[in-house]
C-alpha cells in the first residue's frame, strides 16, 4: 500500500499555520497593565525583557492540527494497493435471485449486471441492458487478485457482436430460469401514406397490395394534396413535378419519403442505388437527408417498365426498403458466449481518503470549539 497526494499544491495551505500562532500572541497583548497609586512614587526600574510565550497549549495544538488537516484535505491524499480482493459474483437479469443465492453460496456478494451494479438483495431485478459492456467494466475495475463468477440464464440478452474477453479467467455458470425469457415482439408493419395527383391512381394498387401483404390490418392511406403524415409513417409521393419544400423539410426532421419517378427534387449528395433488379440495374436510388431518408424510383411505376411490380417478392422488398434498419442481434446462447481471459489488466485508480479525513476534521473542530468555549477558560 503506497500513500500519495493527488494535488500536492494543496499543501501550500500550510502557510495558514501562522494564523493560530498570531491569534494566541494577540491575546496576550489584550492584557492592560494597571498602575497602583502607592507605586506612583517609586523609582521606575528597568522592565524585564518580555519573552515569547503561548498560553493554552492544548487549544493551540488543536487549532494547528485543524489547519494542517484542512491543508492535507486540499492536497487530496490517496493510497494505492488498498483494494478488496474478495470474490465477486455478477448476476444477469433473468436469473432468479433465490437460484443465484443457492448457486453462489450464502456469503457471496451478489451484484446485478446493471448500471451501478446494485446488490441483488433488496433491489428488483433490472431490465436487460448492455450486458457485455457492463461485464467488461466490472472486470476492469476489479483488483487483479479478485475472483469473478458470472451467473447467466440460458439465453443472455444485451450482448454485442464482440467476443467477451476479460482480464481474468472468470467462472461462467448457467442458471436455469424459472420461466423462459419472453420472445421480443416483431416490429410493426410500416404505415404507407400515399400522395398522388388527381386522376393518376393506376400505381396505387401496388402499394395497397404490399400493405395488405404486410399485415392482416394494413395501415394504408391515400389522398390528393400536400398534407404530410406523422413522422412515423412512410410518405409515398407520386405527384409529378417539383416537390414542395415542406416535403424535404419533413424528411430532414426524421421522415422517410419515397418519390415517384416524375418527382423533381434535388437528391441528397450521398445518393446511391438502394434497390436493384436481378440484372443489377437500379430501381430506387436515395440517401440520408438530415435526420431522415429521401428515395426515388428510377423507372415508371408500370409493369412494362418495372416488371418487379408483379414479382412475388415485391412486398417484402418494399418493406425492407422503407423500414428503419434493424438493430443488431442482442440475444445469444449463454453456453456459446462464455468469456475468455487474455485482456491486459487496467491500472486501478488510487483510493482517495477524503471521506475519512473529513470525519477527522469534524472531530478536531468539535474538540477545538469545546475547549475554546468552556466556562473555566474565562474564569477570573
Mean pLDDT: 85
Order of strands across the main sheet: 10-9-11-13-17-16-15
Q: What is the distance, rounded to the nearest whole angstrom, between the alpha carbons of the first and last residues?
A: 52 Å
- Low-pLDDT stretches: none
Number-wise, the strands total 20
Structural class: alpha/beta
Tally the helices. Answer: 8
Principal-axis shape equals elongated
SSE succession: EHHEEHEHEEEEEHEEEHEEEEEHEEEH
Describe the main β-sheet briefly. 7 strands, mixed
Give a structural overview.
The chain contains eight helices and 20 strands. With 380 residues, the chain is α/β, with parallel strands linked by helices. Helix 2 runs antiparallel to helix 8 and helix 5 crosses helix 7. The model has no long low-confidence stretch (mean pLDDT 85).
Write a brief caption for the model:
It contains 8 helices and 20 strands.
SSE topology:
Elements: E1 2-5, H1 18-29, H2 57-74, E2 77-80, E3 88-91, H3 97-104, E4 110-112, H4 131-140, E5 148-152, E6 155-157, E7 165-166, E8 171-174, E9 192-195, H5 204-214, E10 220-223, E11 234-237, E12 241-242, H6 245-252, E13 256-259, E14 263-264, E15 272-276, E16 282-289, E17 292-297, H7 314-322, E18 331-333, E19 340-341, E20 351-352, H8 354-373
Parallel strand pairs: 3-4, 3-5, 5-8, 7-19, 9-10, 9-11, 11-13, 12-14, 13-17
Antiparallel strand pairs: 1-2, 2-20, 6-18, 15-16, 16-17
Helix pairs in contact: 2-8, 5-7
Amino acid at each position: 500500500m503506497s500513500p500519495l497526494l493527488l494535488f500536492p499544491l494543496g499543501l501550500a495551505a500550510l502557510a495558514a499555520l501562522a494564523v493560530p500562532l498570531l491569534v494566541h500572541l494577540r491575546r496576550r497583548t489584550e492584557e492592560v497593565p494597571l498602575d497602583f497609586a502607592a507605586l506612583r512614587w517609586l523609582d521606575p526600574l528597568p522592565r524585564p525583557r518580555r519573552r515569547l510565550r503561548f498560553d493554552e497549549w492544548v487549544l493551540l495544538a488543536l487549532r494547528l492540527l485543524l489547519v494542517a488537516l484542512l491543508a492535507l484535505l486540499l492536497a487530496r491524499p490517496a493510497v494505492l494497493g488498498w483494494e478488496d480482493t474478495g470474490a465477486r459474483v455478477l448476476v444477469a437479469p433473468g436469473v432468479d435471485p433465490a437460484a443465484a443465492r443457492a448457486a453462489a453460496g450464502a456469503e457471496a456478494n451478489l451484484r446485478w449486471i446493471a448500471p451501478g451494479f446494485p446488490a441483488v438483495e433488496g433491489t428488483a431485478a433490472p431490465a436487460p441492458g448492455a450486458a457485455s459492456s457492463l461485464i467488461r467494466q466490472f472486470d476492469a475495475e476489479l483488483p487483479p487478485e479478485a475472483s469473478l463468477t458470472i451467473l447467466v440464464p440460458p439465453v443472455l440478452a444485451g450482448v454485442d457482436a464482440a467476443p467477451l474477453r476479460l482480464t481474468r479467467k472468470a467462472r461462467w455458470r448457467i442458471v436455469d430460469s424459472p420461466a423462459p425469457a419472453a420472445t421480443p415482439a416483431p416490429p410493426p408493419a410500416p404505415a404507407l401514406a400515399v400522395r398522388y395527383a388527381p386522376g393518376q391512381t393506376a400505381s396505387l394498387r401496388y402499394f395497397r397490395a404490399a400493405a395488405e401483404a404486410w399485415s392482416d390490418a394494413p395501415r394504408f392511406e391515400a389522398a390528393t394534396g400536400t398534407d404530410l403524415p406523422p413522422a412515423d409513417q412512410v410518405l409515398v409521393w407520386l405527384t409529378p413535378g417539383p416537390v414542395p419544400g415542406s416535403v424535404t423539410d419533413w424528411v430532414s426532421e426524421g421522415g422517410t419519403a419515397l418519390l415517384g419517378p416524375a418527382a423533381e427534387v434535388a437528391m441528397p449528395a450521398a445518393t446511391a442505388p438502394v434497390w436493384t433488379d436481378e440484372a443489377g440495374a437500379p430501381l430506387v436510388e436515395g440517401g440520408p437527408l438530415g435526420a431522415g431518408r429521401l428515395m426515388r424510383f428510377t423507372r415508371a411505376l408500370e409493369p412494362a417498365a418495372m416488371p418487379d411490380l408483379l414479382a412475388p417478392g415485391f412486398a417484402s422488398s418494399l418493406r425492407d426498403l422503407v423500414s428503419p434498419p434493424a438493430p443488431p442481434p442482442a440475444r445469444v446462447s449463454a453456453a456459446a458466449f462464455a468469456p475468455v481471459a487474455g485482456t491486459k489488466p487496467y491500472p486501478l485508480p488510487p483510493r482517495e481518503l477524503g471521506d475519512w479525513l473529513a470525519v477527522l476534521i469534524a472531530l478536531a473542530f468539535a474538540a477545538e470549539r469545546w475547549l475554546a468555549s468552556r466556562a473555566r477558560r474565562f474564569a477570573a
